[in-house]
Structures
1.
Amino acid sequence: MYGKISVLFLLISLLVFPQNDIRIISSDASALIFEYTPDYSDTSIVTFNSKEFRRISFSGGTNLSEFNFGAPLLEKNIINVGVPNEFGTTFEILSTGYKEISGQILPIPEIIKEGDFPSFRYNTNEEYFSSVFNEDLITFGEYGIARGIKVQSFVISPVQFNASLNSIRLYTRFLIRINFSGGGIFAKTPADNFLSGVLLNFDVAKHWVEERPERLSKIAT
């Protein structure tokens, strides 16, 4: 139940914040190929406790480690794809592009109370200083069912940080292929358009909707 609720929540949030930085290259029952070009909205320098940090934000970015205080604040992007089955889906990165800027990235802040108001405390932990360019660029997220469609989320990590090199790597382009396992059954009646524009491959996924069993009618004798 948790997976179903959380995936549906993500889908609804994406209805409010549509992703205009994704372009579909091709989409069919065997694979989805799309291009993702993160739209960086903030790379400014901020100062806390006489230390300078880079604040890195991009459209649709979210912090999935908000309680890991002091670790690098590396925003992620979550995308949702309809799949024919819970298992068997794979992905591959066909190509990427990136740029590097110098600086120490902003750490994840701890929210503390100062008087009657909350305040952010920026400290760095051991994980911060051991950071290198080795984080997976894409991983599997949650799986669930929304409006009868099986949904697999993927977590993309366009921001990387290397503390020892004093360098931040910003990926500017991803070309990603998601491969679907066989055996998906096309429903007689496709899903409604509620998830249109939310699932990257809704044009195909709407046909993988789970059909409800037909009700048996009583026959008078």
Note: Residues 4 and 145 are 5 Å apart (CA to CA).
2.
Amino acid sequence: MKIKSILALLSVLVFTFACGKATEEDEFNAAGEPSSGHLEGKVAAEDWTYAAGRAKPLAMNPSRLSIDLFGSVPNGDICSFNPGINDTRIQFTVQKTTGTFPLDYSAGQTVNFYLDGQQDPLVSSRGSIWLTDINSRSVTGKLKTIYNENNVVNGQFLVVHCEN
């Protein structure tokens, strides 16, 4: 009887250590819908809060929008602003329609984290984009995405709708 009790205890301990504690990434992935609060999080391991953004139809496919989200307001007209390598931003393209768009690398639905001084973006395929309103002046939506614990955002945004 004592051996069965010891084996049962060992089984519980092995199961507990094998499963481990949920990480922040696991909790983020399990959370579901993006937050209705202001878009914020971490970008390049620094606190980041959405400040300004724009949505532009793609020249080769006007049924899709390219959306840029900035942590600071760019100088000049946001619709004609040309981000450089030193402009940290979050960028994605999405169908020009309201709805929910799960991120999926194989389907080409990703979010790019462009970090200050880096040519190539960090490409996230975990999370979702929700577009809730599109009109001639603005696009409203929610974004929830994580690349890693240093590049993760969640919340609502309102961007200027720029027509080409």
Note: The CA atoms of residues 83 and 89 lie 8 Å apart.
3.
Amino acid sequence: MQAGGERLPGAENSVHGGESGREAAGWASRCHVNDASADAGAAKTGEKGATLNLSESPEGEAANPSPAETPHAALTQLLQQHAERLSAAAERWKAVVKPMAKWTKPGALDDFGRLEKEFQAWREQFGSDLEGEFGLAELLTKLEEHLTSGRARARKELGRQIKEACQEAGLRLKVVSREDPVELRIPPFAVRLDLEAGKAHLLFAKEELESCPARAEDILRTHQATEKRTTEPRDAPGQR
């Protein structure tokens, strides 16, 4: 301000500028307080919302998805279905193989009575699947041929083998009956052949003493052991 009461240029602006500055500072302070209150309110609202989201879904249902909604559910179900199907198929194949394995054992194919019963039960159980699904047409034909002609062939072959074995052992052989059951005489015993069961029975005075497989070597071995056992001298009463 100059002398004589005149104001300097810009003085008025300075005064007004000071008042404007004070008003601006007050406005900024009020805005700061309002912003802080708004932030605090938002924080509280956010905390409350987070608490609700943790406790339940918007629909009020459990947050965990159902099994049908889990990842790979369709593929898992498909795997289970095929695993069950193949397991059942494996059990079926095992049932087909079981009697076949049994028939590979020594003497099983010579036991015509049992073989025929088991073969017929096997065919009834699996029917045409033996030829189709399991590819056993050739085996079925061979087994049927064996059952049809095998008895006559086995009877003839066994007779030849017993005759040769008796000749080598110096034993007499006589055919008592050629009809079933075939009966031979190898003194001092009779030998009755049950070809259906694949068994030979040694008898003395119509009483069965021993039995063995219907094979020449078994018959001769059983004959000699039984003869030795029955002809050994026994101690007189009171002697040791």
Note: The two ends are 165 Å apart (CA to CA).
